[in-house]
Specification:
It is built from 17 helices and 19 strands. It is of the alpha+beta class. It folds into 2 domains: 247 residues, D-Maltodextrin-Binding Protein, domain 2 (3-Layer(aba) Sandwich), CATH 3.40.190; 217 residues, Dipeptide-binding Protein, domain 3 (Roll).
Amino acid sequence: MKFSNLARALAASTLLAGAVMPVPFAVAQDGKTITGAFDTGPGGFPKKFNPLAATGGFTWFSIYFEPLVTYAADLSVIEGALADSFEVSEDQKTYTFHLAEETWHDGEAFDAEDVKFTIDLAQNPDTGSVFASRLSDIESVEVVDARTVKLTLSQPNSALLADLTQLMIMPQHALGDVAPAELATSTWWSEAPIGTGPFKFDEYVTDQYVALSADEDYRRGTPKVDRIINRYFDNPAAAVAALRSGEIQFTYVEPDDVATLRDTEGVRVIEGNSYVVNYVGFNQRVDLWKDVRVRQAFLYAIDREAIITALYGGAATVAQCGYVAPHLVPDGITEYSHDPDKARALLDEAGWGDINGDAPITWLTYYTSPQAANVMAAVQAMLGQVGINVVPRVVDVPTYNGIVYSNDDAGWDQFPLIYAGIRNGPDPASINIGLNSAQLPPNGANIMRVEFDDLTAAFDAAMSETDPAAAEGKWQEVCAEMNQTLPWAPMWVSSRYGVASDDLVDFVWTPAPAGGPYAAHPELWDIAQN
């Protein structure tokens, strides 16, 4: 596709993007208050308060809940959170955690029983947990004493610590008498949750904001501000408007806004690797995608470089598998450079006219931002040029999750095709949950129902590799298998941006996948008072 054609596609896409105006906002703010759009970003407000069932928003969750371990702020290493320290056995099958002394926000003591209780909940799919398959290698959880927990695995699992960074520890004394199946729909999460973090849950005003108040007894010291408020917006454009007007001090922003915000007095742009690979997902339970030549045609039809240049300002890298990091991508893989003629030829060979022809194909996404609308409009036009007729359908995150995680066979026609993103780092094992045949819903996140034996075998080999020197080669084998079989059509890995007011002091935000979490230390955040 020439740039002129891409421009026409983008012009048409503005009808999808729409114009967004900020909504009036007022809330009592005694003392020092930081207000931000901490959940605004790709997918918008997830409307998910239960961290066992959430697929994003962990930057926010970790302000009032805490995991056992977390990433350092630069995502370079995993360190202790509610665990002061931890050890891993040489065979990587035993993990021992030494716990911090802390109290829950209601004054009850936190201890090892809470950790065991939480892991048991997370392994139980009745709770709505997205961790059930991820933590399935945990064979036993032993409470050694009040401050020590030992996990024993049935086999090594290189993703375990990364998964535990997102597992917020829950209070047994508050939830122990609640039936697991009731937790999935409980209002406790949005009305009176109890955590151990530096801030306590205060109030939720439906679809407007959540307010937290400082926990003066927090083990790392009393927070420097009295309240933190999380504002909710329909999309990033509305959040940027609120930032410009001074209503909020932080928001995620789209690349389109970065150029002007870099020159805006009083704010600073924070940029980093998103560690999210965007992809077009083929529902493998749908007959349309059984022939690999059809899947290959998708990639040849899409001019990914042109989209990156026009819509990402060059701040993205084309992905030929689930990874773009050079040490994970082997030499000699197919590059799938833009070639519409080759795409048409592959479709003809596969008999696309008989398989589907010009019949419209629903293309589902939870991305609601103007940038995502532009991307999908451009891809839609490019696919149309080779005879593939896709029709975008944009829904909110709860609706999307309800569709793709359903096991109702009659619902496959609702999502034959998706546009989505999945965490692909910092730990390369993170992507396993989306492609391993052992991770099928409802217990896992393999929402495209990918059951490719050789790909699963490659993941299993990489996940169980205990020698760090050998692991790199195993992950390259995963990349090569993805590149050859194309369970998805990988698109790119982009940079991600946040903008913070200069009034914020000691504020830490990292553009981490799913919002982290990471060691942001919100108890140290402060705001200058004029």
